[in-house]
Amino acid sequence: MTELLALREAWISAYQGPRASAESVMDWHDRYRPGTVARVNTALGQCYLQRHLATGELSYTPARISATEQLTDIARWWATSHGDTAAPPPSPNVVAESAAARAARAY
Q1: Which of 8, 14, 48, 67 could serve as a FRET partner for 32 with CA atoms 20 to 30 Å apart?
Q2: pTM of the full predicted structure?
Q3: Of 61, 6, 64, 9, whose CA–CA distance to 35 is shortest?
Q4: CA geometry: angle 8, 12, 18, nearest 5 deg
Q5: What is the C-alpha to C-alpha distance for residues 6 and 13, in angstroms, rounded to an integer?
């Protein structure tokens, strides 16, 4: 991700920044973009959609949001104090649902 953000900043500098120039644009195309593409391809070279299928080695089941009565509290925390304070603790309903789901997977 940082590779792409850095490449974007270099593009902005080359095309729109106060020192934008044809030379900067060519430098971006010849030096920055190819290097970033190579590094991203190396990092993601073994990634393909079949690995993420339900039967694939990287299958993922997204968390199911339960106990919707907590959504307002969680959204408020995320928008206002995320990183500064602890997240709201799970309600008893969420804990019970989680325990039931875990027990169902155990069999």
Answers
A1: 48
A2: 0.46
A3: 6
A4: 155
A5: 11
